[in-house]
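Let's study today's protein:

:::
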Amino acid sequence: MSGFWLLIHPSTAFFDRKLKRCSSSISTIVSPSFWTLIEVLRKPSLTKHLANEIPQYYSARSAEYDVAGLASMPLLQSIHKEIERLRVAFYLVQEVAIDDCRLDSQWKLPKNASAVAFSHDVAMNTAEWAKARPRTVERPLEEFWAERFLILDRTTSHPRKDQPKSEKVETGRFSMHGIEHLDLASSSDHYASLGQDFAKAVQTATLAIFLTEFELQLCDLEAVDAAMPPVRETAFGEVRVLDKVAVRIRKRGTREKR
């Protein structure tokens, strides 16, 4: 009987691993994929730009996307990091490895103490971002900016004279140089269960399929703006919109695909 019992009731450790993977998939894949799509759709010029770029990574012969190639696009890398910074909330627990770790002029932590940091406290620290790379705060950290992590290509990033500045899509080189210490997701175990590359690949593939296989449009931009959650309100866990987001969606025909 004991053998039969073990057969149908796996160990607690097995369940623990499965539960962690399920939980991790929500915070590292499902929620970021949703936010990536919504934030891209909120800026029609960005939607159009990506919809024109993504088909270059599609092979009609194999009917497959080059997901690795897509994920390496500078703009998409920047979008992933911006979603991770603004729309993902998690905590980091770190054990102090030195004696008297000083936090400021009044507070310090003893060696072997456990320190807890919350991602949004770092993500919204304007002074630290400005000191590390001034360009990152050219737009408020409280709002989504797709190009925040790009080093601009000044020869191609200027908008046309008839193009409003808010509608331009900047190009450049993706870089985390100098701001690595502000990237808590990569320095923590946030992606420990599924892996950062895998999570990014699924997010990229999801965006690619939706933008090329379907025609999408937010029904009411003002309602979507009103549904955006306040930053800093969620210490950790899933960041959710305040209300339902209505989207018009239509499957493209074969000849309509980009």
About this structure: Confidence is low (pLDDT under 50) at residues 1-10. DSSP finds ten helices and ten strands in the chain. The CA atoms of residues 213 and 255 lie 11 Å apart.
